[in-house]
Amino acid sequence: MTADRPPESILITGAAGFIGSALTRRIADAWPQTRLLLLDNLSYAGHLANLGDLTQRPTVRFVEGDIVDEACVTGLMRDVAVCVNVAAQTHVDRSISGPQAFTRTNVLGTQTLLEAARQAKIDKFIQISTDEVYGSLPLEAEGVRFDEASPIDPSSPYAASKAAADLLALSYWKTWGFPVCITRCSNNYGPRQFPEKLIPLFILNAMAGRPVPVYGDGLNVRDWIHVEDHASAVMRVILAGQSGRVYNVGADNEQPNLAITRRILALLNQPESLMMFVADRPGHDRRYAIESGRIREELGWRPRVSFEEGLRQTVDWYRENSAWLQAVTADAAAR
Ligand code: NAD
C-alpha cells in the first residue's frame, strides 16, 4: 500500500453496527476496487439490515463470527492488507450492569485481532477508540480540552475496556514495531444507531409521544459528530495515518444533553413536558471535549456536516425508516 492509495483489501470488524456500517458503505462507494471483508457476530447491536445490499457487491464478503475467536480471525487476517477494528460492546449503561462482556470483546477481542494481524504481517491495524478514555472534564473548565497527550483516566467499565485496548494496540507498536493507529472520536450520531443511545432513543420516544429520560440535571456535555464525518476521518487514517500515532476526531460541537433534548423535541413539534429527569448514571462523566488539530493538520481532515443539518437529517431518517426500526428491534429481541 502506498500513501494516499486505497488498500487492496480491508477487514472491517463490527461492520453490521452503527459506525461499522457507515464506514463500510462509504469505503465501498469511494474505493470500489478495494475488497472488503466484514466480520460481525451479529450481537443485539449488529444487524445485516444496516448493510442493506452492500453484501451483494462482488467486492464485499460478510462473515458472521466473533473477534475473540482466534481460529476465525487468524483465517481472515491472512487475506487482508488492513484491519479496522470497529467491533465492540459500546453501551455505557450495559457496561455498568454487566462489565464482563466488555472485557471479553473490547480487551480480549482486540488482543486476539492484534496478534492475528501481527502474525499475518498486515500493513496497518486501526483501532477505533473513543474520547471516553480520557475521562471527564469539569463544566467550569470551559475551553480546556483533551489532546492526544492527555493522560487516560476512564470512568466506566466501557471506557476502561477501550483504554485497555488502546494500550494493547500501542504495545504492539512499541514492542514489535507492528503498524497500529488509534482514532479517538467523540460522540457519534446519524442514521442506523441502535435505539438505546441518547439521540435515537429520544427521537423515537418523542415521535411516539413518550417521555424522554434525561439523566440527572441534563447538563452533561458531549462533543457531537456526524457518523459520516467519523467515517471520513478513519479513511484518512487508513490512507495516511502514521504508525504508533493516536488521532483525536471531533467536530468542536459541545452540547449539553438538555440542549440536544430540546432541539429534538422542537424538530418533532413535541412539548418540553415530555422531558423526564431520571436518576443519574453512576460515575456519569460531566463533560467530554477533545482537541482534534492533529488529524486536521497532519492528514487534512475536516468535519463537513453541521450539527443543525445533521440532526435534522437524522430525525428525518428515523421518521422515514420505520421498517428498519422494526427489523432491528425484532432481531435484537430474538437474540
Ligand atoms: P455498535 O454497538 O452499533 O456496533 C458494534 C458492532 O460490533 C455491532 O455490530 C456488534 O454486533 C459488533 N460486535 C460486538 N461484539 C463483537 C464480537 N465479539 N465480535 C464481532 N463483532 C462484535 O457500536 P458503534 O456505536 O458503531 O461503535 C463502534 C466503535 O466505535 C466502537 O469501538 C466504539 O467504542 C467506537 N466509538 C463509538 C462512538 C459512538 O458515539 N457511538 C464514539 C467513539 C467511538
Major sheet details: 7 strands, parallel
- Strand order across the biggest sheet? 3-2-1-4-5-6-10
Please tell me how large the radius of gyration is.
Answer: 19 Å
- Which ligands does the model contain, each kind named once? nicotinamide-adenine-dinucleotide
Span between termini: 40 Å
How are the SSEs ordered, and which strands pair?
Elements: E1 9-13, H1 18-30, E2 35-40, E3 60-64, H2 70-77, E4 82-85, H3 92-97, H4 100-120, E5 124-130, H5 157-176, E6 180-185, E7 187-189, H6 198-207, E8 212-215, E9 221-226, H7 227-240, E10 245-249, E11 254-256, H8 257-267, E12 275-278, H9 293-299, H10 307-320, H11 322-333
Parallel strand pairs: 1-2, 1-4, 2-3, 4-5, 5-6, 6-10, 7-9, 8-12
Antiparallel strand pairs: 9-11
Helix pairs in contact: 1-7, 2-4, 4-5, 6-8, 6-10
Bound molecules: nicotinamide-adenine-dinucleotide.
Protein model, in words:
The protein has helices spanning about 20-30, 70-75, 90-95, 100-120, 155-175, 200-205, 225-240, 255-265, 295-300, 305-320, 320-335; strands spanning about 10-15, 35-40, 60-65, 80-85, 125-130, 180-185, 185-190, 210-215, 220-225, 245-250, 255, 275-280. It is of the alpha/beta class. It has a 7-stranded parallel sheet, sandwiched between helices. Helix 2 (about 70-75) packs parallel to helix 4 (about 100-120) and helix 6 crosses helix 10. The chain starts with 8 loop residues before the first strand and ends with a helix. The model has no long low-confidence stretch (mean pLDDT about 95). Nicotinamide-adenine-dinucleotide (NAD) binds near residues 68, 105, 162, 188 and 194.
